[in-house]
Fold this sequence. Notes:
By secondary structure, the chain is an alpha+beta fold. Helices cover 19% and strands 27% of the residues.
Amino acid sequence: xxxxxxxxxxxxxxxxxxxxxxxxxxxxxxxxxxxxxxxxxxxxxxxxxxxxxxxxxxxxxxxxxxxxxxxxxxxxxxxxxxxxxxxxxxxxxxxxxxxxxxxxxxxxxxxxxxxxxxxxxxxxxxxxxxxxxxxxxxxxxxxxxxxxxxxxxxxxxxxxxxxxxxxxxxxxxxxxxxxxxxxxxxxxxxxxxxxxxxxxxxxxxxxxxxxxxxxxxxxxxxxxxxxxxxxxxxxxxxxxxxxxxxxxxxxxxxxxxxxxxxxxxxxxxxxxxxxxxxxxxxxxxxxxxxxxxxxxxxxxxxxxxxxxxxxxxxxxxxxxxxxxxxxxxxxxxxxxxxxxxxxxxxxxxxx
Length: 351
């Protein structure tokens, strides 16, 4: 048996809201498993982004390029609903404007709200997607408390392990974690809807993913592919893991973009395969600037290690906090997506 993971769990794992100035709010739709999650930085945060999956659905990512004008953002929206879910960001813009938050453009304050979406349309009625009202509601619910995890917000309809068919997938979700070294804090919030399996990076223990034909065990997607088992035909973009890394460090846009890039190391440790042609894996990085960081390489190296660790931990927590769902498929047939706990895979680290 694999040894127990040293990953902190429960309250000891921390959350992205451990970073001062960061708030998180969820909206979960009661009509089907879908929703959205907002990460607020009302005072503004220097931001970066890195898109590694080949099928992303995003908004306002170009402005995060270091050479472009805007220096700070005021929120990041994560949503289900595929590209339709990008409308949730409009609700965040509306809510932030009402609070007087945004970039002064002379004629008003314009909130800057990048966004990314994941594909959760197979889980229930695909005509129900997060919209502007959903994004507005997520902002109203936001606080600096540790956010709920599992089947909430952008993780409501998330699934993992779909390479051998949706009927053999398992429930994904949303998770958060943080890492502290001295005065520096780095937190992550990850909505895991991966094509691949999720594993504990410290033990190699598979936690959730594609199941065997009888549905009772994990197949191990990586090994199945390497021994020649054929996967099902895939529609591009029907998966995707999205998330936000936040730190209290003072960073430039160049450094924030680098932090988002290195954060993908955490996804690669916890998801296999990752960054596929059918995933739109996207990570944002927010820096609130409350703690100065030496401009030399060692300072950024430490932050990068912390970011990758927080991302990996948050990804693990996303599936450990998930709960089984049963919905009607497109043809009315019941579809059941078990969680790691149902298969006895969450282990003693279940939050």
